[in-house]
Design goal:
The protein has 257 residues and is α/β, with parallel strands linked by helices. The chain has a single domain, classed as Spore Coat Polysaccharide Biosynthesis Protein SpsA, Chain A (Alpha-Beta Complex). Helix content is 39%, strand content 15%.
Length: 257
């Protein structure tokens, strides 16, 4: 059902996701949502893709009521999500990645906690993380250990792209990210904006619930560019470490007061 004012808005950021789109990921999302009783909408927020992503999205959603494409200039993943948020009408807003490494059906695990009154319900990939290389498993542990020493000590996994928000606080807090004070990145860039966003929610007194969800690396996109596993790992690790350090420095300087 997708008639009337949506109860939930699903935002899917998209940057050079042609290969994932050709796998039928939006068909998976539609097959799940069409079985739901509550009205819904899906906003595919394209972040200025340079491949055939926009064309493919337009073709795929042509026969899917409730799906829309937000064709945005390139600004990075947070900018794409913000573009989707500004168009979202649902009382609840779900962020989910195009690769569907966490399947849309895992929303069934988040909704009960949302209905109990939590402002944010976030997916957690647990410790197994099927499809992660040994290098990335070690890197994830290092990142969690470093981050939790300074911020969000009660949260295990801040980086899972599957998060459900109450509309009002996320609309208020999302544009406060430091990301928006920088220039738009070129190409694909890992950010730890999730850490800052969850910190803003925690600081605002919002309630956060972490729920373990199914996760398996299904990403076949060209989003991350070239350079090999080790090269990507080093770039991503440095970028994420820098973001966490910046949030902590901003906190100590009182910029969030």
């Amino acid at each position: 059902m997708n008639e009337g004012h949506p109860a939930i808005s699903v935002i899917i950021p998209c940057y050079n996701e042609a290969k994932n789109l050709q796998r039928g990921v939006l068909d998976e999302v539609y097959a799940y949502l069409r079985r739901q009783d509550d009205p819904w909408e899906v906003i595919v927020a394209d972040d200025g893709s340079t491949d055939r992503s926009r064309e493919l999205v337009e073709q795929i959603i042509a026969d899917k009521p409730g799906f829309t494409l937000a064709a945005l200039p390139h600004g990075g993943k947070p900018a794409a999500i913000w573009g989707g948020l500004q168009r979202a009408r649902g009382d609840a807003v779900l962020f989910t990645d195009m690769d569907q490494s966490t399947p849309i059906a895992e929303l069934d695990k988040l909704l009960p906690w949302y209905r109990q009154g939590y402002d944010v319900v976030i997916g957690s990939r647990g410790t197994a993380r099927e499809g992660f290389s040994v290098l990335r498993r070690v890197g994830s542990w290092v990142f969690r250990t470093m981050r939790s020493a300074f911020l969000l000590r009660e949260i295990h996994d801040t980086q899972c792209g599957f998060k459900l928000f109450r509309r009002e606080p996320v609309i208020e807090l999302f544009p406060q990210l430091q990301f928006f004070k920088e220039g738009a990145p070129s190409g694909w860039k890992v950010t730890a904006y999730d850490v800052e966003l969850l910190y803003l929610f925690e600081r605002a007194g919002c309630t956060i619930k972490e729920v373990e969800v199914a996760w398996e690396n299904r990403d076949v996109s060209d989003t991350k560019g070239q350079g090999g596993e080790l090269g990507r790992y080093m770039r991503e690790s440095w970028s994420m470490a820098r973001e966490v350090l910046r949030v902590n420095v901003n906190r100590l300087r009182g910029l969030y007061d």
